[in-house]
Amino acid sequence: MSRISVRGFAVASATAVTTVGAVVGVAAGSTPAADDNNFEATAADTTLLADIPAGQQAQVQTASLTQQADAQASAADASAKKSAEESARVQAAKDAKSKKAAAEDRLEKERKEKAERAERASRSEVRSASAFATQGSYSVADVQAMARQMIPGDQFQCFSNIVNHESSWNYRASNPSSGAYGLVQALPGSKMASAGADWQTNPATQIKWGLNYMDSRYGSPCGAWSFWQANHWY
After folding, report:
1. Which helix (H) or strand (E) holds 180?
2. What integer pLDDT is reported at residue 110 of this predicted model?
3. Residue 21 pLDDT more than 50?
4. What pTM did the predictor assign?
5. How far apart are the C-alpha atoms of 201 and 132, rounded to whole Å?
6. Packing angle between helix 203-218 and helix 156-166, nearest 10 degrees?
7. What's the distance, CA 15 to chain centroid?
8. Sequence-ordered alpha helix ranges (H) in the chain
9. How far is the C-alpha of 229 from the C-alpha of 215, rounded, in Å?
10. N or C end of the chain, less CB within 10 A?
11. Where does the pLDDT of residue 35 fall: very low under 50, low under 70, confident under 90, or very high at 90 and above?
């Protein structure tokens, strides 16, 4: 019978060998003498299965197999745990990316809704031309104050830029060579009659017509101002 020694004990049989622990050598006929010497030198404290009473050998062999099975199961558990941790990490990264995208979408939606509410509020505060009492004459400050109340806040500066270039806020400004008239230099000035019969003397009527013209042709006073900058007319 071949015998194999391990640290602690060895398991041997006539046809096969089962070991527990670190194998330190093989004895009795199947290996060179040098191996036997090494075996004897390093495993003096080992126990051979042949030295174990026959009634206990089955228990030792069973313990050996159980330990091997436990080691394999432990390795499998460690591998499964590592795989699960990696899967969890990947999923966490995906979840974080999805949450970030959702948060950005929500913020963008809130920003647009806020802008829309502000625009509606601005437009709701706009006064009509008929809301202003008619005066015999108007100063530049009077006309500008009327314009601020009639034009949405985010469009006033663009409207003002055009009026500054066209008439310097003089509601009676006239171009004798072209026939253009008023704050926005409507051409001909009589076009503004569609906004009110007092288009020649009432700046509110001229502002109303000018705003409608810019909205219908360019989308807004700022659209008209962009065109004016490129062409120096609108």
Report:
1. none
2. 74
3. no
4. 0.49
5. 13
6. 110
7. 67
8. 33-42, 54-124, 140-150, 156-166, 203-218, 221-231
9. 17
10. N
11. low
